[in-house]
Amino acid sequence: MDSDFFQKWLTVVQKIKLSQKTVSTLQEITGQRDYAVSELVAEVPNHYVKPSRTAERIAQMGYKQTGQALMEKMPQTKTARSADIGEILAAEYVRREFKYDVPINKLVWKDSRELALRGDDVIGISISGNNTVRLLKVEAKSRAKLSTSTLEEAENGLNTFKGRPNPHSLLFIAERLDDQGQKDIATLIEKNTVKGFRVNQIEQLLFSFSGNNSHDLASKKAKKYNGQFVRHYIGLVVEDHQNFIKKVYQEIVNKWKKKKK
Fold it and tell me: Which DSSP category does 97 fall into?
C-alpha cells in the first residue's frame, strides 16, 4: 500500500483543534475510488495471513489452494467485514499519518473469522533513541450510520485501564515480537507494561469509518472530554459504506480466483 495512500484517497473536509483534542473528518476525493479499492485489495489479505506465510503456501500448494486458505480466514458476514475493515483502516492510518509503528496485524490471530479478537483494536508503538516507549491506544468503529451511542462505546473502550492500553494486549504484542526474533523490543515493552506507563507516554485515537458525516457528533464528544490524555477523533466518511466494503472483499476473491500460476 502506498505510504501516502490516505492523502491520495481522501481530503480533510472539517477539522477543529481544542485543548489536547483534535477532530478531523475526511471524505473521498472524486475519482479516487478505484485507486482506494485496488490498494486495499492488495493490503487487506496481509491482515489475515502474514505475507511470508502466503509466499510459502504459494510455493507449496499453488495459487488456487493458497487462495482457498485465505478465503477461510476472511469473514463472510457484513457485520464482521465492517468491523475488520474498520480495524484495518485504523491500523494503516496510524502507520502512515501518526507515524507510530503497528508491529503486528492483529487479525492474523483471530480464532474465528466472524468474531472480534479481544483486547484493544489497535496499539501504535513509538520507541525513541533513549528507549522511551510511547503508545497510541486506538478504538475503531465501522458503521453504515455512526451514532452517538457508538461513539460512547468507543470512548468507554478508550477509558478502560485508566486510559492506558490493555496490559494483556501489550504482552500479546511482546510475545509475537519475541516469536519474530525482536527480543529487545519485546523485553522493552514487557518492562514498561509491568512498570506502568505515565500519562505523557500515551495518546488516544477514536477512529471511525462510516457512511455518514459524524463531525458534529464527534466534536460534541471532544468538547465534553476532560481527561488527561491527548485524544484524537478521526472520521473517515464513505457514503456508500456497505457497498465499498462489499467491493473490496469481492475484488479480493476475484483476484485469487483469476490467478493460475
Answer: I
